[in-house]
């Protein structure tokens, strides 16, 4: 299966995915890294793995539709089957959802439906929960609302700082995301999502 990874920033999840692909633990072909930020660090990581990149931002277009059409054109040129979001900080619009129905997966750093949005880790930390985690889900038109595929729990320790919690959450993401992608994209186990909220931790 040909996969495009979408990322906006650092790209540590991209790196974890590429390591799993290199180790043959994740059977999929990453044919494109797309970023909506021309200067994002993830583009350097893509170069390291010799993954073709495309980078442009919605600001460069007259409308969101025009931006999404440009994204779609690049995906179709590369015959992409699946989109994997790895820190892509934008809502996916109708055009892409229609072109890739149930073929877009996202990772979010909280136990959804708790703490959706841009600051999942901070919001959970500030709420004082004793447990948070990560969620992998199919993408729909909402913000972090699509059907949940898998969740991994992370305990909040009494001496945690936001930074130490972030570190453990990212570690959990890097373990869980490649495993789940292997089930769904690698093995083609498409109903992996529907049965239950699997906890693979
Ligand atoms: C991750 O925490 C992911 O869950 C969220 O954005 C962050 C991206 O981190 N959607 P990175 O760019 O993969 O390091």
Account of the 3D structure:
- There is one protein chain.
- The chain starts with a strand and ends with a strand.
- It has helices at residues 12-22, 41-48, 64-77, 94-99, 120-127, 162-186; strands at 2-6, 29-35, 53-55, 82-85, 104-108, 131-138, 148-155, 198-199.
- It has two domains: 1-101, Formyl transferase, N-terminal domain (Rossmann fold); 107-185, Rossmann fold (3-Layer(aba) Sandwich), CATH 3.40.50.
- It has 201 residues and is of the alpha/beta class.
- The model has no long low-confidence stretch (mean pLDDT 95).
- 36% of the residues lie in helices and 21% in strands.
- Bound molecules: 5-O-phosphono-beta-D-ribofuranosylamine.
- 5-O-phosphono-beta-D-ribofuranosylamine is lined by residues 7, 9-13, 86-87, 107-109, 173.
- The site of 5-O-phosphono-beta-D-ribofuranosylamine has 12 residues, from helix 1 and strand 5.
- The record marks 144 as: Raises pKa of active site His.
- Keywords: Purine biosynthesis, Transferase.
- State the CATH architecture of the largest domain: 3-Layer(aba) Sandwich
Bin the strand percentage.
Answer: 15-25%
Biggest sheet architecture: 8 strands, mixed
Widest sheet: strand ordering: 3-2-1-4-5-6-7-8
Overall number of domains: 2
> Termini, distance in Å?
26 Å
Described by the principal axes of the CA atoms, the overall outline is: globular
Query: How much is the radius of gyration in Å?
Result: 16 Å
| Structural class assignment | alpha/beta
Helices, by number, come to: 6
CATH superfamily membership of the largest domain, which one? Answer: Formyl transferase, N-terminal domain
The overall average pLDDT, rounded, is 95
CATH C-level of the largest domain: Alpha Beta
């Amino acid at each position: 299966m040909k996969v495009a990874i979408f990322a906006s920033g650092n790209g540590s999840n991209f790196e974890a995915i590429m390591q799993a692909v290199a180790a043959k633990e994740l059977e999929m072909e990453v044919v494109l890294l797309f970023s909506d930020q021309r200067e994002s660090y993830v583009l350097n990581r893509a170069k390291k793995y010799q993954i073709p990149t495309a980078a442009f931002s919605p600001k460069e277009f007259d409308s969101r539709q025009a931006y999404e059409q440009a994204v779609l054109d690049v995906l179709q040129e590369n015959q992409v089957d699946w989109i994997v979001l790895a820190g892509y900080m934008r809502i996916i619009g109708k055009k892409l959802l229609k072109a890739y129905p149930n073929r877009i997966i996202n990772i979010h750093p909280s136990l959804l439906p708790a703490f959706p949005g841009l600051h999942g880790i901070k919001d959970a930390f500030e709420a004082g929960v004793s447990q948070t985690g990560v969620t992998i889900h199919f993408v729909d038109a909402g913000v972090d609302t699509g059907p949940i595929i898998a969740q991994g729990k992370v305990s909040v320790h009494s001496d945690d700082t936001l930074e130490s919690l972030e570190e453990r959450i990212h570690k959990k993401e890097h373990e869980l995301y490649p495993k789940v992608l292997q089930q769904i994209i690698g093995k083609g186990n498409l109903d992996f999502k529907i049965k239950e909220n699997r906890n693979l931790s």
